[in-house]
Write a structure and sequence with these properties.
Elements (H helix, E strand, L loop, with lengths): L4 H21 L22 E7 L9 E6 L5 E4 L4 H16 L4 H4 L20
Antiparallel strand pairs: 1-2, 2-3
Length: about 130
């Protein structure tokens, strides 16, 4: 059975379409070419609504923490070396291992209350 050049070109075009369709349907991941956070804040006292951690890799030599502020819904970068950054990074790693809700990481820590002298009594100074 002889195939004409027209049949071969149609078959080639069909194969090319199928290949491109399969490549498009397959999961493609965005890989940044450089660090997303050129400048970071060491400590931030504002309330946060969400955060994302980008692990270090070939694109950047350090972990990146991108937080969304509650006040103006702006995204800023938080340094993983600061106290809040370390806490968010630790919580993120714990979530990745065990699963969980990342909203727990955004809650502010409460300070421990001082012990009162006696049940229900306040210390008074005279």
């Amino acid at each position: 059975m002889k195939s004409s050049p027209y049949t071969r070109s149609v078959l080639l075009a069909f194969t090319l379409c199928i290949t491109l369709y399969k490549a498009q349907v397959g999961g493609s991941a965005f890989v940044p070419a450089r660090c997303s956070c050129p400048a970071t804040y060491t400590n931030m006292r504002l309330k946060l609504t969400d955060f994302t951690v980008i692990s270090k890799g070939s694109h950047c030599s350090a972990d990146e923490i991108i937080v969304r502020l509650e006040r103006n819904n702006k995204e800023v970068c938080l340094s993983p070396e600061g106290p809040r950054g370390k806490r968010l990074l630790k919580c993120w790693n714990r979530i990745q291992e065990n699963g969980g809700n990342k909203k727990k990481c955004l809650r502010r820590r409460t300070r421990k209350q001082r012990k009162r002298s006696g049940p229900g009594k306040r210390r008074t100074t005279s």
